[in-house]
Amino acid sequence: MELKERISILEALLLVSPKPLKINQVMEICQDGDQKGWEEALSFLEKHFNEEHNGIMLQRVATGIRLITKPQMEEYVKSFYQKNLKHNFSRAAFEVLAIIAYNQPITIPEINAIRGISSGGVIKTLLEKKMIKITGRKNVVGKPFLFGTTEEFLIRFGLNSLKDLPKIEEFNALEAE
């Protein structure tokens, strides 16, 4: 397969894929196992989309690639979302998500102790939205479920891994200012 064709295929799949695209998926779909050729096409697209005149760029997240808007477009994208879309998470959901992200694996009683309020309903919502998952059971009396974040969480927040989360010290420094 020629480079131009690979580039066109990648563009089309990136546009329609609801999740980050993995090169091995593309190779399987196209029945073309030339990984070097696909990486070359990806490199071309990365350079192309990262040019100044484009409003979108390629981002590598959670071992995949996706198209996102450039940071310079934030003002316009925010305005669009505020006028056209509802916020998906409540303040409580963000709180619980942060607690889980920074303390996983963690149980509901541990989350409740940190928040000082029951979090069962919020946990249910986050499970439904596939932001968190049950990762096991804690080996204590009652064997409560342990919760952790999902790949969907990483994708939604533009992270490659949990190591990309801001450090707690960074938040403390902001509060001190």
What is the share of helical residues?
Answer: 40-55%
Spans of at least 5 consecutive residues whose pLDDT stays below 50 are none
Which geometry do the CA atoms define? globular
- For the residues shown, what is the average pLDDT? 89
Cα end-to-end separation: 56 Å
- Any guess at the CATH architecture of the largest domain? Orthogonal Bundle
Please identify the structural class as seen in this structure. Answer: alpha+beta
Number of helices: 9
Oligomer: single chain
CATH class of the largest domain: Mainly Alpha
Total domain modules: 2
Main-sheet strand order equals: 1-2
How large a portion of the residues is in β-strands, by DSSP E?
Answer: 5-15%
Describe this entry's structure for a reader.
It is built from nine helices and four strands. The chain has helices at residues 3-16, 23-30, 35-49, 74-84, 91-103, 108-115, 120-128, 151-156, 168-176, and strands spanning 56-61, 64-69, 132-137, 145-149. The protein has 177 residues and is α+β, with helices and mostly antiparallel strands. Helices cover 53% and strands 13% of the residues. The longest helix has 15 residues, at 35-49. The protein folds into two domains: 3-73, Arc Repressor Mutant, subunit A; 91-176, Arc Repressor Mutant, subunit A. The termini are far apart.
Summary keywords:
single chain, 177 residues, Arc Repressor Mutant, subunit A, 2 domains, 9 helices, 4 strands, 53% helix, globular
Question: Helix and strand layout, with pairings?
Answer:
Blueprint: H1 3-16, H2 23-30, H3 35-49, E1 56-61, E2 64-69, H4 74-84, H5 91-103, H6 108-115, H7 120-128, E3 132-137, E4 145-149, H8 151-156, H9 168-176
Antiparallel strand pairs: 1-2, 3-4
Helix pairs in contact: 1-3, 5-7
